[in-house]
Each structure stands twice: as C-alpha cells, then as structure tokens.
Amino acid sequence: MSKPVILCVDDEKVILESLKAQLKSAFGNAYQYEVAEDANEALELIYELTEERIKIILIVSDWLMPGMKGDDFLIRVHREFPYIIKIMLTGQADEASIERAKKYADLHCCISKPWSEADLVEAIKSAMAKL
Q1: Do you find a cis peptide bond into 4, omega within 30 degrees of 0?
Q2: What is the pLDDT of residues 63-104, one digit of tens each?
Q3: How many other C-beta atoms lie within 10 A of the C-beta of residue 22?
Q4: Domain count for the chain
C-alpha cells in the first residue's frame, strides 16, 4: 500500500523545493511528497493519484499563481475531495480571499510567507490530529 500524499502547490520552484525538504525533515518517510507548479497541474495530479487509489491527505497551496488563484483552487478541491486538508501559504492573499477559502474550502489555516518551518510543521500536525 502506498503512503498518503502531501501535495505542495506553488509557482516558484525554489519554494516547492524548500517545502518538500522541510516536510521530509519533519515527517521523514511517513508520507509521499508531491509538487505542482500551478492549480491545473495540481488538479491533474490529484485525479491521477485518486485513480491509482493513492490518498492525498493534505495540500499546502500558494494563493497568487498564474491561471487559478489559490482560494479558487482549494474551493474546487474541496467540492470534489472534501476530506483533503487544505493549508494556504501566501504573502499576497487579501483577507477576503482567505475568508472565502475558510468558508467554502474548509481551509485549515493560512500561513504567511516568509514562513517559519516550525509554524508550518505545527499547522500540519494540528491538521493531522483531526484525521
């Protein structure tokens, strides 16, 4: 059986690499770590993994991305996959977008960029405690 997936979505490769390294450091081999550079790529990956019966348990998503903004992406994910925990990581989202994601995507929390690794890990641990 494959490990559950944590998916990171951001249009900056350096941020994706940093997130993946921090998550691996904090959680080791407990999870599979996947990345996508925009919402559409992330949706394709979610559908592929779901088809392969690989469970995505958490998404960490940027807000400001080309194509689809993070709140719209997380709302869409929530409609189809309500069990996936959603965290927004952003330096740009306005309060209205964050509130919209909380209301319509059941957003677990929003973390501001630049983020601290400790805050990110704590947010994920508190989210996982709800599973």
Answers
A1: no
A2: 999 999 999 999 999 999 999 999 999 888 889 999 999 999
A3: 19
A4: 1
